[in-house]
Write a structure and sequence with these properties.
The complex is a heterodimer of chains A (656) and B (549). With 656 residues, chain A is an alpha+beta fold. Helices cover 37% and strands 12% of the residues of chain A. In chain A, a hairpin with a 7-residue loop joins strand 3 (34-39) and strand 4. In chain A, helix 9 crosses helix 13 (397-411), helix 10 packs antiparallel against helix 11 and helix 19 runs antiparallel to helix 20 (550-563). Chain B has three domains: 3-102, Roll (PH-domain like); 129-503, no CATH class; 507-544. The termini of chain B are far apart. The chains are: A alpha+beta (656), B alpha+beta (549). At the A-B interface, helix 8, helix 9, helix 19 and helix 20 of A face helix 7, helix 8 and helix 19 of B. Chain B: Its main location: membrane. Chain B: GO terms for molecular function: protein phosphatase binding. Chain B: Residues 123-498 form the Myotubularin phosphatase domain.
């Protein structure tokens, strides 16, 4: 609390980013964890909550006639544009937020103070929900070729690796230790994925310390062991995900890449994924394009091109495709980059999604992130800017992984059990620090911080709320949810991910959601199935016992008939109301309309989310509530003959 | 002329057909007067039937004694035929070339096509102006149907019957016609029931450099304004282009002469620019270099999406003036046959839920494109692969369909038809067995006796088996005005047309089928539950206990 210079400012205006003439007036509160904007006019209904840990930057701009502008950019790509009447207040809010949004110590992170109403026993169970050993068991491990090694159980061999690792059966501890000494940060080759069907494996490591000529017998033995653990193949790939030039440059620093002459039967391959600095700048440029106020098509496409973002996404996916094809053909792959915790994590996890349908299920994605990102030591603290560290270490590496999955979803709509909303939610919470999962850089740090004892797990939260995150198009026995995915990586198959990068620009998104529509139908279908059963039973019963207990049956039937009157209407109402708000098509030509502030159908919208902010630890932090808009049904009531709902279509239209 | 004269080799055996994402087929190639047919003469493989009029251009290649003919179609498909024998190959190529570039309309396939289906409803009579006017009459008595153009002399490109303000007589109309480009005097395009505002369209006024004025023109359009109200004139050209038009006798409505109207200039490109854009876009989509930078820069350079954005924005503006400002609108560009129709028809999609049904959309295409005199024959003569220098060709109608698709993507539950219907219209506008899109205007269609001699596309479409394929399973009538987003992030490349032949659509088709399945299963259960419920109710009324409370 000592960082809050000013807990409350009144008469603050929240401007609409896309049409600044629209604005809302209200009070801005600063709390220990959130900034909260409460609109005065709407009778307290409209609140915007922004978690401090999601704030990426706070910029105070030159004061104008109408007040002092304060621009808050968030890591989930929300942008809030406030105008504060007094410059001194603005200054105070600015300084407070700057400090609040840049914690210096782990203890300050939100997850350590986030206490939902969950019993301690329950909280402990949350952390058992995702179990990596179970995933390796699912792969059929340990087996005669692969064993669990405890060589790193005290994090002595590699302090950024997990305690438990799978290695080839024939790799004795001295080989592992020897190999680790020849690899950056001791990150020796360890198993990431194993294919039960054809015994091919994906292993990962950091770069070898080969310099210009150094060799390491144990490291060579290690690769030999990996090769031999796949008896059906007489060679393996070593994939260096970096551009060749970067790898060569590393040799001067005593690092580098494997010399094919020193390792028997390896095929070495560079992939050309750029480093964290290139990726950071690229995303920055793309976000600038997303922020443009009313860009022309050319502004947008040129900006998208010059950001290079989609090119990088393509490079990651291309590499994932290469690895997955090799494994599908029965060839093992060792993947590394420099340290083996950025590009390596990306491409191993993308390859896993392509290879194994399990990782395309909700639980599977959690396991995958736990495995290739959390346990193998992706540096969340630096990459996601959780704590004040070197700004040059910030990079959207995991964003790119999530985007690759999204690009795949666009190509294979029936292949994924989870939906886009899940990816966006996961993204949000990687940055929010609300849950303990992404706190710290590796297992060792997380144990020291006692994360599992003090915080909650995102995975069990997502699982509890899974109804929102399941794609209605997914079927376990669908052909797309079987086997290897073979995506096209032609440039035109990559799309701009509006759902993430313009997530809070509500007006840009489709006003009706096919997915929500189908979900409503599926829920209805489920109810119908139950009714069908109960009707069948009752008919059988009636026919058998015509004489008995009729009244009760009649009552039951009535209940059933009213049951399907409870229309599952929550889905599309808001969207339709939005539909009635034209954008600024005029370029300011028509000055008056349609932004008359009183028009009930032109609400200022950031993001309609769940209305129950406080109870819902989900995305709604920092969103806006549209409780003013009634849920309008877009869907007719269930049955034709008996239960036409009087509040259906007609009512919806009269509200227009 | 006999087609036989043009067919140098009617039949070649051992021809190999390559098509994107399909297995190659070896078989016999036959040329008929209107079709290129390849059949393997085995039961299980699909035959290829390609209308000559669908062929945009062909290329020949020779490797040894095997020649290849690469056929590029107006629907943007590219196929390759490997033909053994140099002479056969050359013969086939020159025959296709001749047959696909026939000049005479009356030799086109629709005049020879005999329907193999039962016509339930003759599409030629489905959308008559007098029927549309009856609907209007039920809403307002301020308009009348004038037959001033009954013999197409006042305006060549207008239909015989047009709706005009009731108190404007035919003599006035004739005078106004002399003041508007190609005689296209302002006529009613759309009546907004909600507030009685209207949208009219016309050709540009012929003010010329010395600012000619026409009192009758002013009177006509002022007659559509409510007392004390102002209207908007949406000129689809930039002010500069409109200024330049004066030098060629055209122009725009000056503030002085039209004080009750506010003029807005937009920047929808003219047809030659649009054709260029289509060619570049299709070229970009066919680029195999696999470089992201190149793809994005080519996509940008094609300007296709820019045109989409501009057209949609202008249509939204027109709709906004009508619905939100409560003002009447007059739309025109130069001729009033291209950008004008894009704007008026899209504004109706936005404003009028009726236009979002299958029948309503057909009616819209019929009213705002066919009867309104969009020169389909000129515009759709060639597509993106044509080698000949474009003259009057332009994807004006395709851009309209693309814009509709954009709105459909944003409001996926508000349209009764699906994407397939839009693709179908694109295909048939360029090459068809039906007479609907032949000719440039109503006068042409009357001269060619199309209703008597050809079958209407609507006759074919409006049959249960076709409608089923073209109907959107997600449709729920939505009587609201739908305001699309025109942000660049919201406008997508229409993959269903431009990437249709470049990538497999299998997985997307499967997703569509899955969606249909989910909805069908739901309906099936509803029916079952309802019938059980009735059975239950019946059992209960038969029950004597219940009848004696």
């Amino acid at each position: 609390m000592e960082h809050i210079r000013l807990p409350k400012v009144e008469n603050v205006r929240l401007l609409d980013r896309l049409s600044p003439r629209r604005s809302r007036v209200g009070t801005l509160y600063l709390t220990a964890t959130h900034s909260i904007f409460v609109e005065s006019e709407a009778g307290g209904r409209s609140e915007t909550w922004v978690l401090h840990s999601l704030v990426c930057s706070v910029d105070k701009q030159a004061a104008g006639a109408s007040g002092c502008p304060l621009l808050i950019r968030c890591k989930n790509f929300q942008i809030l544009h406030f105008s504060i009447p007094r410059e001194q207040d603005c200054q105070d809010v600015h300084l407070s937020l700057q400090r609040l949004s840049q914690p210096e110590r782990y203890e300050e992170l939100y997850c350590f103070s986030y206490k939902p109403n969950i019993h301690e026993e329950e909280r402990r169970r949350e952390w058992a929900f995702v179990d990596l050993k179970a995933d390796f068991r699912r792969m059929g491990l340990p087996n005669s070729q692969w064993k669990l090694s405890l060589v790193n159980q005290h994090y002595k061999v590699s302090d950024t690796y997990p305690a438990e690792l799978f290695v080839p059966e024939s790799a004795a501890p001295p080989v592992l230790v020897g190999s680790s000494k020849f690899r950056s940060r001791g990150r020796f080759p360890a198993l990431s994925y194993y294919s039960k069907e054809n015994h091919a494996a994906i292993c990962r490591s950091s770069q070898p310390l080969s310099g210009f000529s150094a060799r390491c017998l144990e490291d060579e033995q290690m690769l030999e062991a990996i090769l031999r653990s796949n008896p059906r193949s007489d060679f393996m790939y070593v994939v260096d995900t970096r551009p060749k030039l970067n790898a060569i440059a590393n040799r001067a620093a005593g690092k580098g890449y494997e010399n094919e002459d020193n390792y028997s039967n390896i095929k070495f391959q560079f992939m050309g994924i750029e480093n964290i600095h290139v990726m950071r700048n690229s995303q920055q440029k793309m976000l600038e394009v997303c922020e443009l106020r009313s860009p022309s098509m050319s502004d947008f496409l040129e900006g998208l091109e010059s950001s290079g973002w989609l090119k990088h996404i393509k490079a990651v996916l291309d590499t994932g495709v290469f690895i997955s094809k090799a494994v599908a053909e029965g060839v093992s792959v060792l993947v590394h980059c420099s340290d083996g915790w950025d590009r390596t994590a990306q491409v191993c996890s993308v390859a896993c999604v392509l290879l194994d349908p399990y990782y395309r299920t909700l639980k599977g994605l959690m396991v995958l992130i736990e495995k290739d990102w959390i346990s193998f030591g992706h540096k969340f603290t630096q990459r996601c800017n959780h704590l004040v560290r070197d700004p040059k270490e910030v990079s959207p590496i995991i964003d790119q992984f999530l985007e690759c999955v999204w690009q795949l979803m666009e190509q294979f709509p029936c292949a994924f059990e989870y939906n886009e909303k899940l990816l966006i939610t996961v993204h949000n919470h990687i940055y929010s620090c609300q849950f303990g999962n992404f706190i710290g850089n590796n297992q060792r740090e997380r144990r020291e911080l006692r994360v599992h004892e003090k915080t909650h797990s995102l995975w069990s939260y997502l699982w509890t709320n899974r109804a929102e995150f399941i794609s209605p198009l997914y079927r376990q026995n669908h052909s797309q949810s079987q086997g290897l995915l073979r995506p096209s990586t032609a440039p035109y198959c990559f799309k701009f991910w509006r759902g993430l990068y313009n997530r809070f620009d509500q007006g840009m998104h489709p006003r009706q959601s096919v997915e929500d529509y189908l979900r409503v139908i599926q829920e209805e279908t489920h109810q119908l199935e139950e009714q069908l059963d109960s009707h069948k039973q009752k008919i059988a019963q009636l026919e058998q016992e015509q004489e008995q207990d009729q009244e009760q049956v009649w009552n039951d039937a009535c209940t059933a008939a009213t049951f399907d009157k409870s229309p599952t209407v929550w889905a599309l109402g808001k969207d339709l109301a939005m539909a009635n708000t034209p954008q600024d098509y005029t370029g300011g030509f028509i000055a008056s309309s349609p932004r008359t502030p009183k028009a009930p159908d032109s609400p200022l919208i950031l993001a309609p989310q769940d209305s129950n902010q406080k109870a819902d630890p989900n995305l709604s932090n920092g969103s806006d509530q549209e409780s003013g808009i009634a849920d309008l049904s877009c869907r007719s009531p269930l049955s034709e003959d008996s239960t036409r709902d009087p509040d259906s279509d007609e009512a919806a239209y009269s509200a227009a | 002329m006999e087609f036989a004269e043009l067919i140098k080799t009617p039949r070649v055996d051992g021809v190999v057909l390559h098509r994107p994402f399909m297995p190659t087929v070896e078989g016999t190639l036959c040329l008929t007067g209107h079709h290129l047919i390849l059949s393997s003469r085995q039961d299980n493989t699909e035959e290829l039937w390609l209308l000559h009029s669908n062929i945009d251009s062909i290329e020949k290649r020779f490797v040894g004694s095997v020649g290849s003919v690469i056929v590029k179609c107006k629907d943007l498909r590219v196929i390759q035929l490997d033909i053994p024998g140099m002479e056969e190959c050359l013969n086939i190529a020159s025959s296709i070339e001749a047959l696909s570039t026939l000049d005479s309309v009356s030799l086109m396939y629709p005049f020879f096509y005999r329907p193999m289906f039962e016509v339930i409803e003759d599409g030629w009579n489905s959308f008559l102006p007098q029927d549309a006017f009856k609907d209007l009459e039920s809403m307002t008595d301020e308009w009348r149907l004038s037959d001033v153009n009954k013999d197409f002399t006042v305006c060549q490109s207008y239909p015989r019957l047009v709706a005009v303000p009731k108190n404007i007589d035919d003599d006035t109309l004739k005078k106004v016609a002399t003041f508007r480009h190609s005689g296209r005097f302002p006529v009613l395009s759309y009546y907004h029931k909600k507030n009685g505002m209207v949208m009219m369209r016309a050709g540009q006024p012929l003010t010329g450099t010395n600012g000619r004025r026409c009192k009758e023109d002013e009177k006509l359009i002022n007659a559509t304004l409510r007392p004390g109200k102002r209207g908007y004139i949406i000129d689809t050209r930039t002010i500069n282009v409109a200024q330049q038009a004066k030098a060629r006798g055209g122009g725009f409505e000056s503030e002085g002469n039209y004080p009750q109207w506010r003029r807005i200039h937009k920047a929808i490109e003219r047809y030659n620019v649009l054709q260029e854009s289509l060619i570049k876009l299709v070229e970009a989509c066919g680029d195999q270099s696999h470089s992201m930078d190149r793809w994005l820069s080519k996509l940008e350079a094609s300007n296709w999406q820019t045109h989409i954005k501009e057209i949609l924005t202008t249509a939204c503006l027109a709709a906004q003036c009508i619905d939100r400002e409560g003002a009447s609108v007059l739309v025109h560009g130069t001729e009033g046959t291209d950008s004008t129709l894009q704007v008026t028809s899209l504004a109706q999609i936005i404003l009028d839920p009726g236009c979002r049904t299958v029948k309503g959309f057909q009616g819209l295409v019929e009213r705002e494109w066919l009867q309104a005199g969009h020169p389909f024959r000129q515009r759709c003569g060639q597509s993106a692969y044509s080698n000949s220098k474009p003259r009057q060709e332009a994807p004006v109608f395709l851009l309209f369909l693309d814009c509709v698709w954009q709105i459909l993507r944003q409001f996926p539950c508000s349209f009764e038809f699906n994407e397939s219907f839009l693709v179908l219209l694109f295909e048939h506008a360029y090459a068809s067995q039906f007479g609907t899109f032949l000719g440039n205007c109503a006068a042409d269609r009357a001269r060619l006796s199309l209703p008597e001699k050809t079958v209407s596309l609507w006759s074919w479409v409006n049959r249960p088996q076709e409608l089923e394929r073209l109907t959107n399973p997600l449709y729920e009538a939505n009587s609201l005005v739908i305001w699309p987003s025109v942000a660049p992030q919201s406008l997508l490349l229409w993959e269903g047309v431009f990437l249709r032949w470049n990538r497999s659509s299998k997985c997307l088709d499967e997703a569509y089928d899955e969606m249909v399945h989910i909805i069908e299963y739901n309906k099936e259960l509803q029916n079952k539950v309802n019938s059980l419920r009735r059975q239950l109710a019946q059992l209960e009324t038969e029950d004597p206990l219940l009848n004696t409370p």
